[in-house]
Amino acid sequence: MLSSFHGTTTVGIVVNDGVVLAADKRVSSGYYVAHKVAKKIIRMDDRAALTISGLVADAQILGDYLRVEILSRKVTLGYSPTLKSLASLISLILNSSKYYPYIVQLLLGGYDTEPRLYSIELFGGVVEEDYSATGSGSPVAIGIIEGNYRRDMSLDEAINLAVKAVSASIARDVFTGEAVDVVAITKDSYREYSFKLR
Question: 0.70 exceeded by the pTM?
Fold first, then answer.
């Protein structure tokens, strides 16, 4: 499992009104803390975002591919691609590169016809989820989410649950730390928050 090899914690939660993505801010290289203010949620457009777990450069390149695909579709066809088609594109890229892999585990979340969250694995496996977590702190985070998740919770409740899940990972996982960034995406809005922990 990739999450045992790469440090970070990211989570995604789908509720009726939208999708919440959250991530810590620590970048580690082995046991060395290389950076304390990294942004691990990449904005794709006003309705989609991607969380980073694994090698940052690999994830950034994949994020660039997606942004170009979204822009290309908007310009040539007049509409944005669905989240499922974006997840499929990343899956094809990862699978075609399996002999020289991108070392990533990603969450793609957003709103097209409804809120959606896709978990995308190292070699291109894609699963649509109601909630998911990636990175070394994911076992702690997923335990928090599973015990408190409801599809009908409000967006604010989902934000609080995501922050609680990443915060629990910060307390228990040496590779997760500093603060929590959150993105909330609904049909009509894309909002970003940052929570500093005591």
Answer: yes
